[in-house]
């Protein structure tokens, strides 16, 4: 029972991590110091996609599922949980590259807004 709950918790943490990778820059808009945590997370998330690797949380979840008497899965977290919702076909390296580029693009746009806001605020402060 504990192993299954732990595996489910790992899934929730994994999902929250992915959401933070993709949209954490929105939190940085409100709390700029979060960038020190978010930027390395973006690098990790995009890097995992670019090299075609899997996040260490996937083997952890699988080990917990096996300990609970359940079957794990051979593919990665995205393939197992998210891609069936988004893509009908299996995850390919090309799709992973696209996901990595998507992560970088979304965050480049958000951080671009942050830079533009800071410049605007500096100009306003210098003009006072």
Automatic annotation (TrEMBL):
This is DUF2784 family protein. It comes from the Bacteria. It comes from Aromatoleum diolicum. Pfam families: DUF2784 (PF10861). Keywords: Membrane, Transmembrane, Transmembrane helix. The lineage of its organism: Bacteria, Pseudomonadati, Pseudomonadota, Betaproteobacteria, Rhodocyclales. The chain crosses the membrane at residues 6-29, 41-60, 97-116. InterPro entries: DUF2784.
């Amino acid at each position: 029972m504990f192993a299954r709950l732990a595996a489910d918790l790992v899934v929730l943490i994994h999902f929250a991590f992915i959401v933070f990778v993709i949209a954490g820059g929105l939190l940085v808009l409100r709390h700029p110091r979060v960038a020190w945590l978010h930027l390395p997370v973006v690098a990790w998330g995009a890097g995992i996609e670019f090299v075609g690797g899997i996040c260490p949380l996937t083997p952890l979840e699988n080990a917990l599922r096996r300990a609970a008497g359940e079957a794990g899965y051979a593919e990665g977290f995205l393939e197992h949980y998210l891609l069936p919702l988004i893509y009908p076909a299996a995850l390919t390296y090309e799709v992973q590259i696209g996901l990595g580029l998507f992560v970088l693009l979304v965050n480049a746009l958000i951080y671009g807004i942050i830079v533009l806001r800071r410049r605007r605020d500096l100009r306003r402060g210098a003009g006072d």
